[in-house]
Amino acid sequence: MRPRILSVSYDQSLLRTRHMLLEAQSYDVVSCASFEESLELSRQHNFDLFVLGHSIPTADKQRLIDNFRRYCAAPVISLRRYAGDEFISGADYHVEPEPESLLRLIHEALRGKSHARGSGAQTQ
Fold first, then answer.
1. By three-state DSSP, how is residue 114 classified?
2. CATH number (domain holding residue 12)
3. CB atoms within 10 A of CB 44
4. CA-closest candidate to residue 7, choices 82, 90, 74, 104
């Protein structure tokens, strides 16, 4: 069974690009650009990973992570605009959205690795 990823971004073009990138890597991807729909989707128990785009404001990211954590223990990746972006409580990884590093981090997170320093990820 293919790993299932919930990908959320408020930027439609970035969301579509990320969706295609992840599907090309044989992941089952559910993409969402709406805060309310993201809350509803995060209540499902069948995700292996949650990816939050850098276009989502910090307060929304925090609410989405808190909601997701009520229902699922899967890893959470928070994408950052730049290295100075604050870390979001509850996210397992914080990384800039460069595709190669992101794909490497996703692969490692889904394999259950405790850290991904080689991918440019920063953990809390």
1. coil
2. 3.40.50.2300
3. 13
4. 74
Would residue 54 count as lying in a domain? yes
23 inside domain: yes
Domain presence at residue 8: yes
Instruction: State residue 7's pLDDT score.
Output: 97
Position 83 scores a pLDDT of 67
Q: Among 67, 109, 113, 119, which Cα is nearest to 88's?
A: 67
Range of the domain at 104: 4-112
B/e letters for 107-116, b = 16+ CB within 10 Å, e = fewer, are ebbbeeeeeb
pLDDT of the residue at 41: 93
- 15 confidence band (pLDDT: 50, 70, 90): very high
Cα–Cα distance measured from residue 34 to residue 106, given in angstroms and rounded to the nearest whole number:
22
- What is the C-alpha separation between 8 and 32, in angstroms, rounded? 5
What gap in Å lies between CA 72 and CA 102, rounded to an integer?
A: 21
Q: Does residue 13 belong to any structural domain of this protein? A: yes
pTM of full prediction above 0.90: no
Q: Report the domain count for the chain.
A: 1
